[in-house]
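Q: Please design a sequence for this.
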């Protein structure tokens, strides 16, 4: 190992502890075992670390609750698909996931309905900012569906992207929840919710834009 590599190695030791742990594990395996083993273990650890960090930055929140608490802030946002520009009927709760839906996020989703005082008639889960989902995320969605079903709540998914949609089809979740409860944008999801709760139809906002394009849904 040259002097430049030693300096680089020392610099890496100032990284976050989790990164240092992966580095030292791979380095130790290189010395004590085999380079191939070290690379394989290092890649697995790095992948797990990446998914853990992605789950940490992903959040799940009640859109309707935030709307009631801070209406002005929502109206100030330059988002044509903002929920503040739409009429959410009584008996409908809208939650949104922001970020990849990996194993760390699944535990948070399980507790979402517990936060509500009473089960809503319709539970809309916006997934427009979920680029990917893994097996634990799929399992959590199935559990959420069955929990909603037991409580008499209709689960609706909005803004489902290509990778999550493909995963749904692979395990048959699209048949479980029903294609009539999966939509590419929040307007169609709210229209379906109004049909279920018996609310008066509301016109779509003029500035609305598709959350998921036709090309993305068909990918």
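A: Design:
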């Amino acid at each position: 190992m040259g002097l430049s590599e030693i300096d680089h190695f020392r610099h890496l030791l100032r990284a976050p502890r989790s990164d240092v742990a992966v580095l030292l594990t791979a380095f130790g395996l290189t010395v004590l075992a085999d380079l191939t083993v070290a690379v394989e273990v290092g890649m697995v650890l790095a992948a797990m670390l990446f998914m853990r960090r992605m789950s940490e930055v992903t959040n799940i929140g009640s859109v309707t609750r935030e709307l009631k608490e801070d209406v002005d802030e929502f109206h100030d946002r330059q988002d044509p698909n903002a929920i503040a520009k739409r009429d959410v009927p009584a008996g409908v709760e809208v939650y949104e996931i922001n970020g990849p839906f990996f194993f760390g996020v699944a535990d948070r989703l399980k507790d979402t309905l517990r936060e509500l005082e009473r089960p809503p008639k319709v539970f809309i889960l916006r997934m427009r900012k979920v680029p990917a989902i893994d097996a634990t995320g799929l399992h959590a969605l199935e559990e959420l569906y069955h929990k909603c079903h037991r409580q008499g709540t209709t689960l609706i998914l909005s803004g489902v992207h290509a990778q999550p949609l493909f995963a749904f089809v692979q395990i048959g979740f699209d048949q479980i929840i029903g294609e009539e409860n999966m939509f590419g944008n929040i307007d169609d999801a709210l229209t379906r919710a109004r049909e279920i709760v018996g609310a008066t139809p509301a016109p779509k906002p003029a500035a609305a834009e598709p959350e998921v394009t036709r090309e993305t849904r068909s990918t």
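Q: Thanks. Anything notable?
A: Residues 71-76, 213-219 have pLDDT under 50 and may be disordered. The longest helix spans residues 35-57.
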